[in-house]
Amino acid sequence: MKEKKPEYQIRQDFLHSFKTSIKNYAEYAFMLKNSANRGEVSSSLLNLFKVLPAYEKLTFGNLFPTTVEQLGLGTSVFFKPENLENELYWLLIPIRHHKKQMKEFIELRDIVETSVMLGNYDEALDLLDSSIKNLGHSVWLYEMKTLIYCQLGKKEEVYSMITEINKKKKDAKYGFVTFLLSSLLSRSMTDVSAYQYDYDLISLYKRNKNEFHTHRFLYFLYRLNFYSNYNRGNEATTLLMENTNSLIDRYILILNILKSYSSQENADTTMVARYAKRLHGLLNDPCLYPFIAADNIANVPIDYYDKAFIDILDAYYTGDYEAVILQSSEYIKRNPCCFDVIRFYNRALIFLGRSYKPITPNRASILNRLSEKVFFVLKGVNNSQYLYELYQLLKNLSGLSIAPGLDLFIREENNESRIEKIYYLSLVRFDPIVTNLFQTDSSKNRYLSYGLKNIANSIVIDYQKRRVGKQTTEDDRVVAYIRNSDNAKIAFETCNYEKALEMWLYVYATSAKSMPTLQVAISYIFQCYLHLHQYSEAVAFYVDRYLENRNIVNKVETDDFAKVLKKQRYKGYKYSIDFLIFVFLTAKNGTEKNFVLTNFCKYKEVSLPSELIGHLSDEKIEKVEMFFHMIFQEDMLRHHKLVKSTLDILQEKQRIIHYLLTLGSLNQRQYLQEESELMEEMIVYTGIKKMDEGKIYANDQAIIKYELTDIDDLYKRFATQYDLMQTGLAIYLVDTSTNVTDIESSPNVSIYSAQFKYTDSAVLEVANEIYSKISHAYLKSKFGIDTYLSTRIRHGVFEGELRPVLSELHLILNTEKKRYITTDYWLRKYALSSDTNAALMDELKVLSHGVDFAISEFKSKILQIKTVEDEIGYFDYVLSPEDVQAVEITSYRKSQDAEGFIKETFAFLRSKTEQNLDNIRSVVRTELSDRFSSLFERFDKYISKLPNNHFSEDLETTLQNARTQIAYKLERIEKWFYMQDSQFDDMTLRNIMNIVWENTETSFPDVPAKCSTAIPANIMIKADYGIHFIDLLRIFFSNMLKYSKKTLPYRELAFQASVDSKVLKLHFENETDRDDDELSQEIQDKMSSRDRLSGEVGTGLVKAEKIVKYDLKNINNQVLVTVKDHRFHVDVSIDLNSIE
Amino acid sequence: MKSILLVEDTPDKARDIKNFLYSVYGDDMSLGECSSYKSAQQEILDKHDDYDLILLDMTMSTFDPSTEDNGGEPEPLGGKNLLDNIYLWEIDIKVIVVTMYNDFDGQKLMSLNAELQEDYSDIYCGYVFFAFNSTSWQQDLKDKIDSLI
User: Strand B74-75 to strand A1020-1021: parallel, antiparallel, or no bridges (unpaired)?
Assistant: First the structure.
């Protein structure tokens, strides 16, 4: 629609379009939206809507829905947007019409955000409820209420609210509201893992079928998880989809869209600025300032210049940290979403050497909880944990204006990729950092000049002007570390690396209190060394700093240097312990780490890494400790040439951990734990059932250890939901385990008629989520069934078992370019006529095709894992959501903790696998076998028609041979389909004792000892309890070796076992040089102190008691300790009935 | 005389490859064999001078079944680890990957091929796609071997 129409004509055509159909009208509206005469369209429609408001509703949907039922019922017809600009300007029409309400919303938004941050939740809830009268219902309103309820821990209230909305909207034909609210509920919940939320959202709609599905997927990602997805998606389509919601929701999305769009290369920032200016003219929203400022600072209103904020910056720059704290506390009460001030406040505390002090009186407020975590991150204490907690908070607070600052902070601290522009375009007040938005020095200077003009005498603005001009400064009004850092940056940027190095080293030496400054200084120092080709110095500096505090090197960019090192095959560098540690820390593969380690061993003239123990006495002991611990922990021993089995790896690790334990370092507790885990691993390895013919396997322990480490949050959520269900609260939720119903779609227009499915079981969703996570790990992870199925059967092994038999017998043809090629074997052997040979080849082609098809079909249709209904495969784990819920409730009831829950779910999956394997064996026995039989029969019929001669006789014999061999092979294949046991086999107590004694004894190489034993050979321990007996014996043997009296030539220990009336009695005995009464009293004290269980030292007896009573499932089991005549006796009694 | 090391843990695939190689080169070839990452690593590091070329499978077990029940954990990219060893230890030998899969731990063959070409340009000489029911791989393998040794 290129020609310009007069206003009356537009109105007339518009009204006419209504008389035909909704689709025709929508099409006309679409034409107007994209017409050239935007001004006329806007004013004609505005005039029309003033007179006939019903038409506005038909055009723009429910702008301020008066009931929740109306929310989301905007429009069902979507025309593919032509461009973002037209979509933005189209929405300007209703915004212009309802600017009064929109201004009211902006005021409300700011007050609500402030109240939420400061913890004034009741005030915020009251405001939100009373706003419905003028502003109606919006997704934003419920998002805020959900956030508040979740922060208050009011789960019943939040579920009741969502349930009520879902019930009211269960028959809604259009809109995304219930799904949006369901996801926003997950996002707001403090016990939903942030990473899980990211993952779930991506997983939910990733199987897109058509373009509309893709757009809907991207809309959900963008709308519900902006800070993880702001660089993906199509802004115009996303905005179009939001048009089903209230005008408030659309406006909020517009602000995000302006940020993400402006951050793209080639964005039309002039269009954005023009639009922002128009919007600002209507609404006076400060959130629009940055877009205007980015284009032309002269156009920004005066209230952009916030003197109080610049005063804080000035105080910070001049080192007046008391003033920073005081002014920040005041400022933040009015602007609690100003992340920068939170950062300055905490930095000031750190500079003054103070501990954390709440920034406002309400310590439990979001503001203070967030601020405290920022404090510890800046201080460099337990960074990863606090950064994780901040990420969780970011997810909860994504709908508040603190989010952009928090997002950038987390990304910077984690050294992750980031788009700073998103943050700069969120800054609603003048800030020198915004100069980063500008490309040229003159634009930067212009921005700063306007700042100086409006906030006179600011030190920081003046200082930044000099910095833009790359002028080093000695202005001593600015605190030295900032001045020195900036001067050093200038030296670096101007390639004066020697000077830069000197200056950064000075900054590093004088900035002990400021972790962020130290991190930046270290990063620059490392780069300076590299630029100066002082590689050893770079490496040593990095490793020394890492040793001091591993968080301190977080911001050092090492990837490029690590690549160069590998490319040069680590040649030309001194193989110092620093160099090795550096490679261990930065190389990507175990092969590389092993390479430098092996070279180092050669240099030190030893073979195995453990033999380096004692060869590094000249090095700092802390470095030696770290060096060996990295060898212990990292994946490199597997690649060492002299390590030839898993046992070799475990033994090498054992030697290393024993050495580490002799150091008595601060990490002793961790090493004890690792030693204990290693010993268990060795015992499991030694005691594991030998491989049978079964090829189906899942490595349960590795799955728990590596694949399900973050299950705790989900488990807690399941527990909460389950407990909530027990209260009888009737809950009605969107069932996210099923997809929305479909849409009618053509190239340019989509009619959406989605109805979400609902469930009245609160626990159903989380049960399905946790089951999905556990079953995915069990079935499809690196250690799961599919990996073994793939490498042990599907990948050539199955085919290789069958086809070669026929190939050897010359009964199967090979293919070339997908066509079977004939063989001359039979022709040559029997001098066949060309006709006879051709007929034989035809028959062999049929046989070959039949065999190949049977093999390929078995692999593709039977040997596949099926977790959803539309997949194929006999490893069938499809369950209805209700069945999943039942499984997980059972798992929950039968277990005590997350690990127990996982094991119970594994047990279910295992039983399901057994059923599947039974079916597969049956297929091999019947269908597959029959298939081969019918193929052979067909061939046999062909033979029977041949004249009786040597050829036909030989062919017949060969066929019989094939029948026999294939039958034998199929029998073998059938045996593959059994679970290979990943647990212990049942073992004799004597065997367990021998393994444990052998392993424990090697842990005490300096304690010569002999243990006399009397254990009947027939005491069997069930596989399920093997590990508990191992733990029990290990505790007693370790204690006996540690505390028994030193006697020559060795310590004499005793262990006896007997069974009396189904009670297993264990007796441990050793000599002691302690006083009987004193030791008895000490033991009594230990046994009565239950909280010792969480400690490490001196807790063996308490742990042993826990094992015999709880793990061995009888509270009447006992551990009895007596000390008599300088002999220490432990008598354990275990009821065998409980563990059979 | 061509001297080739075959690293392959699927016995029948190994047999088919060997049969083909003997049928083509007969006595003009000596062939060594390994069936796991560790045994191949040992052979390559110790006896690489004995070989002109390695025919390398990509997915294999860590240890030989004779050393360890089950072969230890599967190594979806064991072949890549061996290439890494050859590169780092500066072993002057050519490698052809012989695979029958298109997917390696989530990475597609074409993408893996491009990565190997970039990382090991002096060693890696492309791949041959093996299939039990086809002989197309034979000519491809022969052409590659003949062009190298």
Answer: unpaired
